[in-house]
Amino acid sequence: MSIRFDNPDRPNSYIGRTVPRPNARRLVEGRGRYVDDIVLPRMLHAVFLRSPYAHARIQSINTEAARAAHGVRGVFTGADLAEHCTPWVAVLAHLKGLKSAPQHPIAVDRATWTGEAVAAVVADTRAQAEEAAALIEVDYEPLQPVTDMRTALDPETPVLHPDLGDNLTFQREHVSGDPAEVMRTAPVIVESRFKTGRHTGVCVEPRSILADYNRSEKQLTVYHSTQAPHMMQVVFAEHLGLPEGAVRVICGDVGGSFGIKVHVYPDEVATATISKILGRPVKFIADRLESFATDIHARDHEIDARMALDEDGRILALDIEDLTGIGPYSVYPRTSAIEGNQVVNLCGGPYDFANYRARTTVVLQNKSPTCQYRAVGHPIAAAVTEGMVDLAAEKLGLDPIEIRRRNLIADDAYPYTSPANMRFEGLSHHKSLNKLVEMMDYPALRAEQAALRENGVYRGIGIASFIELTNPSPFMYGIGGARISAQDGCTVRMDPDGSVVAMSGVTEQGQGTEAMLAQVTAEAVGVPVQRVRVITGDTQTTPYGGGTWASRGAGIGGEAALQAGRALRENILAVAGAMLQCAPETLDIVEGNIVDLGTDTERMPLSELGRVVYFRGDTLPKGLPRELVVTRHYITSDYPFAFTNGIQASYVEVDPETGFVKLLKHWCVEDCGRVINPQLVDEQIRGGIVQGIGGALYEESLYDTEGQLLNANMADYLVPMASEMPDMIIGHVETPTRESELGAKGAGEAGTAGAPAAVMNAINDAIRPLGGRVTSMPMTPERILRSIHHLPE
Amino acid sequence: MKASVAGYARAQSLGHAFDLLQSAQGEAVVIAGGQSLVASLNLRLSEEALLVDIRHLPELRGVVLHEGVLRLGALTRHAELAQAPLVAEHAPLLTQAAPLIAHAAIRSRGTLGGSLANADPAAELPACMIALAAEILVRSAGNERRIPADAFFEGLFTTALEEGEIIVAVDIPLKAAGDRHVIRELTRRSGDYAIVGLAGVKSVDGVRLAYFGVSDKPVLAAGAMTILNSGGSIEDAVSALQDDLDPESDPHASAEYRRHLAAVLLRRVLADMTNS
Ligand SMILES: Cc1cc2nc3c(=O)[nH]c(=O)nc-3n(C[C@H](O)[C@H](O)[C@H](O)COP(=O)(O)OP(=O)(O)OC[C@H]3O[C@@H](n4cnc5c(N)ncnc54)[C@H](O)[C@@H]3O)c2cc1C
Fold first, then answer.
1. Rounded to an integer, what distance in angstroms lies between the CA atom of residue A545 and that of residue A308?
2. Are residues B48 and B117 in the same domain?
3. What is the CATH number of domain A24-32+487-634?
4. Which terminus of chain A is more exposed, N or C, with fewer CB under 10 A?
5. C-alpha angle A563/A569/A571, rounded to 5°?
6. 3-state SS, one letter per residue, for A218-248
7. pLDDT per residue over A512-550, tens digit each?
8. Cβ contacts (< 8 Å) between A723 and chain B: which residues?
9. 3-state DSSP helix/strand/coil % of chain A, to nearest 5
10. pLDDT above 90: residue A210
11. Domain total for chain B?
C-alpha cells in the first residue's frame, strides 16, 4: 500500500505538516549537550601553537619551558605525532589529475598557512595549556608565500610542494557542442569577469572534539561536533592504526555546521592521537580566532564568462574560465577540487542550450585550506550564469523575466541532460518563475521602482534561477575511492508500550533532521509523532550512513526511515492478524491503534500488542515472526544526483551617495520535491538565503600579500545580522522524485545557491542608470560607489 | 583564548578604589561595564592585572543638574543615556547617540566613563563630548581635575588620564532654546562601530563638528567650522574637510572612501540642523 500524499486528511498524515521539532524545547531551555558540555574523569585540554607565518621552515622547536609549566601533561610537535599517526593525501580517483601533498596532524618541518598548528600542549585546564603554549620557542625561517592565485602558476612563483612539480592541483575542461564556432558567429556576445570572495561558514558552536582512548578496551571513543560520524570513524581508525570497530564516534548536539564540520581537521586528528598516546580523554574546542584561521574557507574564485545569444535572446553558447585558490593542501577526504568541479557542472544549469565550454583551474597557495561549504560551487555558478543572463537582457533590451522565459528548460522537457552532462529527472523552472512573478507582483514592483527613480531613489529588482544538487549517489565521492557512505540506513523499533524508536545514520546539526525522521517514522508506522524518539550520531548504535552533506538527510535518510517504518508496520500487522484472528491485510495502524482498514474501527492499542509480544509471547503461534525491530537502507541509483530547482528575487535600494545597500525584500520559490515539514523547509531556505547574502555583501576573509589574515574576529569579519536582513517570502512547487516513495529531494542549500546572484542582479538593476555594475563579491558599499564613479577606480 | 587576570577586587568606596590601584603599583586596571575591557582580556591584548571593580560606587552615579551644567556620573549606562529625561532635555545629542552604540545587551552594561576612558576612535560618546564642549571630571587619591574634552583624547585608546586616575563624571553645558544637536554615522550593520560618524552641535557660538572613525581619535573639523561660522558655504566647508581630516585605510574602508563619506555626512548633518 502506498501513501496517499494527495490526501492531506489521510490517517497519520505527518508528512507534509509543520510538526514542532522534538529537540527544540530542550535546546531552547539550554539543556542541549554539546561536546564542550561533556566532562570526563582525567580529562585534559589541548591547545595548539599556530604559525604566525604563511610560509616558513620550522628550524627547531624548544618545548622545555612549556613542559615544565604548571599543569602541563604533554607537549607534542609534528614529529612527535608522526610516529603515531599516518599522514593523508586528499585525492579522488575520478577527479583526474588531482594531486596534493601528504599532510600531518601537526606541521612537521614547514608551516604553510598562518594558523597551521606547529605544536600542541595538553594541560589540566585550557588556561594552563595556553600559558604553556606561549612558552614554546619556535625558530622559523620565513619563506616566500604564494598568495595571489593569479600568479600561482608563474615560473617565478615558488612551488609550494616541490614533489608535486607545480602549484596546479587540479584542472578540468569540459566541452560540449562547438562553443568556439558559435562564439565566432553569434550575433550577440556578452562577457564579464566575476569574483567571489573567500569566506567561511561561521558556526555558533566552534569545532569541538573530545577524544577518549581507553587502553583497557583498546577503544577510542570520540565525542565530536561533526556532520559525518561514520566517515570520521574510518579516518581515525585508518590513521591511528585501529580497527574500525575499535573507534566509536558520538555526535550529540551540534551548533551549526554548514559544511564546515564535514572535513578532517589536522588539530582534531592531533587531539585523538594525543589521547591515544596518553591514554586519557583530551578535549579541544577551537576558539573564534582559531575558527577564522583554521575552519575551511570557500568560494575564492575568479571567473571570466562569455555568453552567445541569437537576436531573440536565446542562449547559444556559454564559455566559463574559472580560477580558484585552495590553500596549501587539498582537504581530506572530500578534496578541494570539488568546488571548481561544481562550477563546471553547474554553470548555465537552468537553461536550454547546447554549446558549452568550462574550465576550472585549481591552484595551491599559502592561505587557509578551502573545501566544501554550504551549496558548494552553486552560489558561484548561479552568480556567473544569472549575471550573464541579465547582462544579455540589458544588451538586447529584454526584461529579465522575459529572457528567462525564453531560455529556461521547458517543464515538459524531462528527463533532460544538460550540456555539462548533468541529468535532470524533473524540474519546474517555468512553474516556479510564474509563481515568483505572482508572489512578488512583479509588474507592480517595476512600476514602483520607476516611480521612485523619478524622485532620485535607486531601487533594483534582481532575479536568479538556480539548480541545486541533492541526494548524491556514490558518484560524488565513493567512486573516487573515498570511504564516504552515500547510502543510509534507519532502524525502527517498537517497544512494549507502543512507543517507537528510530535510529538513523543521518545526523542532526540544528537543521531539524530529527523532526523530519520522527514525522516520517510516525506516519510510516502509524503512531502519534510524540511517541517516536529519534537517535542519531553514534557509530556504534545507528545503522551505517553518510550523515549530513549535499542536502541528503530527508531524501536519503527520510526514505530509509519510511521504508523501515513501513516494514515495521507490516510486521506489527502480522502479529495483530494472529492476535485478532483476521487477515493482516484487513487491518491498519492509526495513531497508535490497530484498526479495521477502511472503517478505522479500533481493535486494540499497540500497547496491548507490545505486552503480548514482549511478555506473553507464549500465547502467540509458535512459528509466528514477531520482529518489532526493522532496518532498511536506501541508496539512489537511477540518477547520480537528484537535482532541485528554484528561483529567487531580491529588491534593494542603493544610496548613490554612500554605496550602501538596503535589502528591502527577498522571495524564493523552490522545488525540493515532497515537502515533509513546511516550516522546517522554509526556515532552511531563509537561513540559506542569509548565508548567501553574507557572501554577497559582507563576508570575506581578507589577506595581505604576506598571507596574513587581517580580519580573524567577529568585529572585522562581518557576518549578516538580523537587523539588516529583509523579509523573505518563500513559496513551493512540488515535483517529487520518482526514485523514492517519499519523493523528497534536498532543501538545505537552495537558499544559499541563489541569493548572491539575486542580490547582485538587484544592485546592478538599481545602479544601471548611474552607469554602475558590480561583479565582485562581497559587494561592499565602497565597491558599489567606485563602480558608479563616485570614487576613483 | 582564556583571559589572564591577576585578581579581582570590588571597591567599596572611591577611596578604597584609589587604595587598591595604588597598592597594585601600576598593575591594576579599573573595570566598569567590562564591555571593552573583558573583550581585550579575552584576546590577551591586556596584560595580567588586578581588576578593580568600580561598579558599586554611588559617587560615580547619577544624572543631575549641577551648577548650571548637566552632570553625568561616570557609571551612567548607555541605556540610561538613551532614556534619561534630563539628557533628552539638555543634551539631546546623547539621547540620539546612545541607541547607535552596540546592541541592547551591551548598552545595558557599558558605561559613559568606560567609553571615554577606552577612547576608541570610532566610538560615539567621545566625539559627542567634544561636540558638546564637555568637561571630564577626574579624581585620584590626592587630586581632582577637570579636563576639557578637546584635550582629553590623545590618540588610539589613549587619553589624558594618568595612572591612578578615575573618571567620576562629565559636565555638559545645557542646550539653549534654538540650539541644534545632530549625530549621524554610517555603519555596515546596526550596532557596529562607525566607518565614519559626525556629531554636530549648533548654538549661538556657532557650529561644532566632531568626527569619529576618521583618525586615531575623535577630531574637530576646525577648518570646516571656521568657514561655516564665518558665513561660508557648505561646499566650501566640505572642501575644508580635505585638510581637517586625514583618515587611514583599514579592512573596513579605504581612506578615500572615508573622506568621501565624511563629506556626505557633513551635508546631511547640516541639512538636519536646518530642517529640525
Ligand atoms: C559587540 C560590541 C559592540 C560595541 N559597539 C560599540 C559601538 O558601536 N560604539 C561604542 O562607542 N562602543 C561600542 N562598544 C563598546 C561599549 O560601548 C563599551 O561599553 C565601552 O566602550 C566601555 O565601557 P565599559 O563600561 O564597558 O568599560 P570597561 O570595558 O569596563 O572598561 C574599558 C576601559 O575603560 C577603563 N575605565 C572604565 N571606567 C573607567 C573610569 N570611570 N575611569 C577610568 N577608567 C575607566 C577601564 O579600565 C578600561 O581600560 C561595543 C562593545 C561590544 C562588545
1. 44
2. no
3. 3.30.365.10
4. C
5. 105
6. CEEEEEECCCCHHHHHHHHHHHHCCCHHHEE
7. 999 999 999 999 999 999 999 999 999 999 999 999 999
8. 189-191
9. 30, 25, 45
10. yes
11. 3
B257 close to A (CB below 8 A): yes
Beta strands in A735-788 (DSSP E): none
Q: Taking all residues of chain A, what is their mean pLDDT, rounded to a whole number?
A: 97
Cβ atoms within 10 Å of A279's Cβ, excluding its own: 12
- Determine the Cα–Cα distance for residues A475 and A473; give it in Å rounded to an integer: 5
Tell me the torsion sign for CA atoms A511, A512, A513, A516: negative
CA separation for the pair A690, A671 (Å, rounded): 19
Under DSSP, the state recorded for A390 is H
Q: Which amino acid is at A18?
A: T
Residue type at position A531: R
A230-248 confidence digits (pLDDT tens): 999 999 999 999 999 999 9
B194 and B169 within one domain: no
Q: Give the number of residues written for chain B.
A: 276
How close is the Cα of B198 to the center of ligand 1, in Å?
20
Q: Grid coordinates in use for A82?
A: 608522526
Which cell is A543 given? 545503522
- Is pLDDT of A793 > 60? no
Contact A458, A653 (CB under 8 A): yes
What phi and psi, each to the nearest 5 degrees, are found at residue A114? Answer: -70, 115
CA distance A294 to A288: 10
* Contact flag B189-A718 (C-beta cutoff 8 Å): yes
Nearest atom in ligand 1 to the alpha carbon of residue B30 is: 47
Average pLDDT score over residue span A284-293: 97
> How would DSSP label each residue in B181-198?
EEEEEE-SSTTSPPSEEE
| Count of positions (residues) in chain A | 793
pLDDT digits (tens, 9 = 90+) for A484-502: 999 999 999 999 999 999 9
Q: What is the CATH number of the domain that holds B258?
A: 3.30.390.50
Ligand 1 centroid distance, CA of B38 (Å): 9
For chain A, counts of helices (H) and of strands (E): 19, 30
Look up residue A619 and give its DSSP letter. Answer: G
Fold match flag (A24-32+487-634 vs A297-474+638-788): yes
Measure the CA–CA gap between A543 and A97, rounded to whole angstroms. 34
Verify that B118 and B145 share a domain, yes or no: yes
* Paired residues of A470 in beta bridges: A642
Which of A95, A744, A752 minimizes the C-alpha distance to A471? A744
For residue A121, which of A137, A109, A133, A134 has the smallest C-alpha distance? Answer: A133
Q: Is the CB of B50 under 6 A from ligand 1?
A: no
- The ipTM of this complex is 0.96
The pLDDT confidence band at residue A1, using thresholds 50, 70 and 90, is low
Q: Residue A656 in contact with residue A770, Cβ under 8 Å?
A: yes
- Taking contacts as CB-CB distances below 8 angstroms, the residues of chain B near A711 are 251
